[in-house]
Amino acid sequence: MKKIGELLYEAGYLTRNQLDMGLEEQLKTQKRLGEILVEKGIITEEILLGALEFQLGIPYMNLEQYNVDMNQAAILPEHIARRYIASVVGIEAGKLIVAMKNPMDMIARDDIERSTKCEMLPRIASEKSICKLMNQTYVSTQTNNIMGQVERQLQAEQKQVVYEEEGIEDTEDKPVIQFVNNILQRCILKHASDVHIEPFEKDIRIRYRIDGQLYVLARPPKELLGRLTTRLKILSGLNIAEKRLPQDGRISKRIADQQVDMRISILPTIYGEKTVIRFMYKTGEEIDLEHIGFYPSDYQKVMNMLKSPHGIILLTGPTGSGKSTTLAALLKVLNRDYVNIITVEDPVENRIEGINQVATHSKIGLTFANVLRSILRQDPDIIMIGEMRDSETSTIAMRAAITGHLVLSTLHTNDAVSSIPRLMDMGSEPYMVGAAIKGVISQRLVRCLCQACRKPHIVTKQEASLYKIPVGTKIYEAKGCASCNHTGYKGRMAVHEVLEVDNELQEVIATGRQSNETIKEKAIKKGMRTLWDNGIESVLSGQTTMTEIFKITYEQ
Question: Are 302 and 425 in contact (CB under 8 A)?
Answer without folding.
Answer: no
